[in-house]
Design brief:
Helix content: under 10%
Low-confidence stretches: none
Number of helices: 0
Number of strands: 3
Bound molecules: zinc ion
Strand order of the largest sheet: 1-2-3
Strand content: 15-25%
Length: about 90
């Protein structure tokens, strides 16, 4: 999106396009989407979404395309989480 990384001081969580990647979306497995902060996921043209398990509280990263069917890595035997966070360049 052309933003200069050096100018970004606040990490803003953004929604994706589609119902299953909206902030607050809860999938059938109890995994809730908290949006992405511009970090790419591990699949083609995906963002890594911050995801929280509403059963055990585990927080991890999910590719957008997997959000609707994601299982918790901690308590549901799901795939390991991916990196979703960005570190500030200060
Ligand atoms: Zn869990």
């Amino acid at each position: 999106m052309g933003a200069n990384m050096d100018d970004i001081e606040i990490i803003e969580w953004q929604e994706g396009t589609g119902e299953s990647v909206e902030i607050g979306y809860l999938n059938p497995n109890g995994q809730q989407c908290f949006g992405h902060c511009g970090v790419r996921g591990t699949d083609h043209e995906q963002y890594a979404y911050k995801t929280e398990c509403t059963y055990c509280g585990y927080v991890y990263g999910t590719n957008g395309a997997d959000m609707h069917e994601r299982l918790c890595p901690e308590c549901q035997g799901g795939a390991p989480g991916i990196k979703y966070w960005r570190t500030l360049n200060r």
